[in-house]
Amino acid sequence: MKLLILTLLIFMDCVAFPAVGLELIPKGRPFRLTFADPREIRMAITFDGTSKINASIGNYFSILGIRNENNPDWFFHLGLEGAGYFTMRQSEKRFPLETADGLFGFYIETSVGSCQYQFRLTHISAHLADGSNDGAFPFSRETAILRFGYLLNPDVHLYSGLQYIFNTTPLVARWSLQLGGTGFIPISESKIVPFGAFDLKQKGDAPHNPSVSLQLGVAFGNPPDLYKSFRFFYAYFSGVDPRGQYFTRQIMSHSLGIEMQI
Q1: Which of 26, 37, 189, 214 has the smallest count of CB within 10 Å of its CB?
Q2: CB atoms within 10 A of CB 122
Q3: pLDDT of residue 16
Q4: For residue 76, what are the β-bridge partners?
């Protein structure tokens, strides 16, 4: 009902102001993807040095878009997102599934020139699979996320964010802070473009802080939007385990990965 009311209000605004255009099922999303965030919505697989395979399978779907015909640098999206995060461990010649975390939510995003704004409400639950030797416990969270992004230039994106867990099992501290960025280094007409990304989180629910995630790699193809390219990268992570069932454990990992936005 609230979503319907919001849609009607937006429609009325568009009728009242002809310069504002309403678009159903727009492509992309205004807030750029944050590559180094371990819980970004993505399609990626990484192989780390502890004989584990981490797979992320996710996508987003913008339902409603608004553009200002007089200012093409301003646009707004309302959409849905979902992802699954899976870990497989090596056992002899097999890779049994160890953990499965599922996320879904909705987002409201806008881009105004070089500035980007994002609000998300997400639900995530975490589970152990039959390939795990540990004991599971109930894990479920609903989180409100507010982030601000800034484009230093078309190839460099910086962002910061604040997260508040408004419903959680088990009970934990609720506030977290985030800071990160992604940068590409285009080389003339080369089809291979180096890039780097970092993500820092000060998590209230974690006994060890901060969590540091780094990526260094190359994007292939050099399309107009490098964020939609096929990428190969090295990743380093140090901090609390992103997987919900192990959220109190401190880990450090080195891995190689591939990623492609769909």
Answers
A1: 189
A2: 20
A3: 42
A4: 66, 110
What are the backbone angles phi and psi of residue 146, rounded to the nearest 5°?
-125, 125
Residues in the chain: 262
With contact defined as beta carbons under 8 Å apart, do 126 and 138 qualify? no
The list of the chain residues with pLDDT below 70 reads: 1-20, 222-224, 262
The pLDDT, as a whole number, for residue 188 is: 77
The owner of tokens 């910061």 is 160
Q: 3-state SS of the chain?
A: CHHHHHHHHHHHHHHHCCCEEEEECCCCCCCCCCCCCCCCCCEEEEEECCCEEEEEEEEEEEEEEEEECCEEEEEEEEEEEEEEEEEEECECCECCEEEEEEEEEEEEEEEECCEEEEEEEEEEEEEECCCCCCCCCCCEEEEEEEEEEEEEECCEEEEEEEEEEEEEECCCCCEEEEEEEEEECCCCCCCEEEEEEEEEEEECCCCCCCEEEEEEEEEECCCCCHHHCEEEEEEEEEEECCCHHHCCCEEEEEEEEEEECC
Six-digit token string for 65: 């878009």
**Interior CA angle at 36 toward 30 and 42, to 5°?**
60
Looking at residue 128, its pLDDT comes to 96
pLDDT of residue 224: 60
pTM, rounded to two decimals: 0.88
Read off the pLDDT of residues 14-49 as tens digits, 9 standing for 90 and up.
Answer: 444 446 688 899 988 899 999 999 999 999 999 998
Pairing of strands 52-68, 140-153: unpaired
Nearest-angstrom CA–CA distance, 99 and 85: 8
Which residues are within 8 A (CB) of 17 and not within 5 positions of it... i.e. 6 or more apart?
none
Q: What is d(CA 139, CA 128) in angstroms, rounded to the nearest whole number?
A: 10
